[in-house]
Amino acid sequence: MPSLSPYSQPLGRRKAKHLLRRSCFNFSPEKIDEFANLTPSQALWSLSAPSVSKLYEPIDPKGEDWDEKHWTSSMKDPRDFSRQGAKRVSIAGWWWYNAFNEITLEHKLTLFLHTCFTTSKDSGTGASTYFYDHLRLLQKHAFGDLKSLANKITIDNAMLFYLDNNVNNKWNPNENYAREFLELFTILKGEQQGEGDYTNYTEHDVQMASKVFSGYKNKNDRSIIDSDTGLPMGYINVNHHVQEDKTFSAAFGNTTISGGTDVASILKEHEDFVDMIFAQDATAISYVRKLYRFFVKSEWEASVETDIIEPLASDLRNNGYQLLPVLKKLLESRHFYDEDDGQNTDNIVGSIIKHPMQLWTEIVSAFKVNLVNANQQDKWEEYYHYFFKNFAHNSCFSGAGFDMFAPDSVAGYPADYQEPNYDRQWFTSVSIIARYKYMDSFLMGKNLITGGGRFESVVDPITYVQSTISNPYDASTIVEEIAQYLYPEEIDENRVNYFKEILTGDLGDVYWTGAWGDYIGGDDTTARIRLNELLVAMVNAAEFQVM
After folding, report:
1. Of 130, 164, 195, 261, which is least surrounded by CB within 10 A?
2. pLDDT, tens only, 418-434
3. pTM above 0.85, yes or no
4. Residue 478: how many CB atoms within 10 A of its CB?
């Protein structure tokens, strides 16, 4: 039966791969080998280290002057800068660079929080700088508590823009943010009881919530700094706030929240409302289900609900909605490693189709892509413009159905919430084309998804084999050891032979041994061609498309 009891043995390579895939974006062979010797508890202690920001701020490499390039730290009005779309992509590139280079749960949790409190960087979040502040707000709360984030996100400039709460006032209450706050961000609907009324809240509650959120405004120049987070935020126009008391439905025990009449009491009103929402069992359950779907598996049996999700929801609520302890308990559990029954029938390992960014980033780390140093001024354009914007963001991610930090709707990415397919929606007749061209592009240093565009960050198959494989002269050893690092499970003899034939050109082991010998002698032509074909085949295989 599903069990939250901890798995306490050293991980070994299989479980180390599983944990690293689910918890971070770096998947190097060296890190797999390191984690193989650790217990889950030891590994998660390491993964709980906070980020150190390899890139301190995003750069717009095409900016005409220093302020344009370093606009996020400029004192100018954020709306005065040009190239706002390109700057949003630079922010995404800044975030990805840190996520790739820092082996910590913080970045995966930041992405998770994005799926919980959704905005779209490309649609209605105001100046690009507000998106930068929003992303940092999520990151600050990755190792914090969800309830605090629910309080802070309401006065976040990007969120105020995105869901129109900046125009919500006492004369014309705007219910957009209040509705999404209840329906998507926190407690969720539950079963429908009538028109607009659900088990967890009613239409009346939406109306009351909109009044709680009235009077919140953007501070366009980012001059107001939150003393708790150190980040720019909006402000409260007291005269625009509905100052009367708000009484909620029976779903919340007919709770009455006192209306605020000044900034301090309005913030207290807001906190009281969030406390009311987070006091409900359904809120904790909704977050743990999202957590389970994101980190473990998109579908589960009734026993998982009873033995895994409900106990974790109780922990989450009882511990002030602290996210990290609950996630660590899940990732340490025998259940997470398919060790909670004799037959390993849960099939958690290898059960999720990889997110496009996960797939792409694993290639970068697993095959030791010589990623340019984005901290070097002479490499800014190469990294931000050619590599990240043109290749990753506009081609690899978008082509595979992932508009980075820009889902089609406030509900988020369909793979995160849309039943019954969930993560299977990452793998479609359209997205497969881009996914299957990832590796070819890296080998050639040319964007093959769009048919052009060069970049310097490439996979060198020769260097990879030399540094990773114990005996590069032996075709079977190459296939078996690459598979041991890449795939969730071991492959059988038939699959080994299938891939080996690609390497040997169907001419037998001696052919490959000779090709590697030629490389050692100074001619890498044949070895490089054969390795290129092998790596493409192994990355595009079904075994690598799942995690």
Report:
1. 195
2. 999 999 999 999 999 99
3. yes
4. 24
d(CA 227, CA 224): 9
Q: Under DSSP, is residue 473 helix (H, G, I), strand (E, B) or coil?
A: coil
Residue pLDDT, tens place only, 199-252: 999 999 999 999 999 999 999 999 999 999 999 999 999 999 999 999 999 999
CA atoms within 13 A on the CB side of 363: 29
* Residue 91 amino acid letter: I
CA dihedral 427, 428, 434, 437 (to 10 degrees): 70
Q: Is the dihedral of CA 329, 333, 335, 341 positive or negative?
A: negative
First to last CA, the chain: 23
Calpha distance 74→517 (Å, rounded) = 57
**Residue 180 in contact with residue 160, Cβ under 8 Å?**
no
Please check whether residue 139 is in contact with residue 106, taking contact to mean a CB–CB distance below 8 angstroms: yes
Q: Is 446 within 8 Å of 454 (Cβ atoms)?
A: yes
**Tokens 């004192």 belong to residue:** 75
Q: Are 37 and 10 in contact (CB under 8 A)?
A: yes
**Bridge pairing between strands 192-194 and 197-198:** antiparallel
What's the rounded Cα separation, in Å, for the pair 348 and 339? 10
On whether the CB atoms of residues 277 and 283 are closer than 8 A, the answer is yes
Pairing, β 256-257 against β 246-247? antiparallel
